[in-house]
Amino acid sequence: MAMIRSSTATAARAIFIATIFISSIVTISAFAQSQSMNQSMNKAGDSANQTGEAIQGNASDVGANISEGVKNLGSNITEGAKGLAKTIGEGLQDLTK
Could you report the per-residue pLDDT of 84-96, keeping only the tens digit for each? Predict the structure, then answer.
């Protein structure tokens, strides 16, 4: 009977130690995965921010180009209108001769 108790106590200790060991491994693995996930999320966030900044910069460039194009178009229209008015004026003068 004493031998059975000794075997049972030894088995119980072995199971207890194995449980603690396995729990430690699972906990360490979970923390490692959590840390890896945090790093991945941070990298994804940084990438999204950089993409947003690039889009914003491109939009600013497009806006500046459009503004410059509109200025040039307005200038060309003004010059064209002046040329047209001059041509019409000269044509009217020729009619009066």
Answer: 778 877 777 766 6
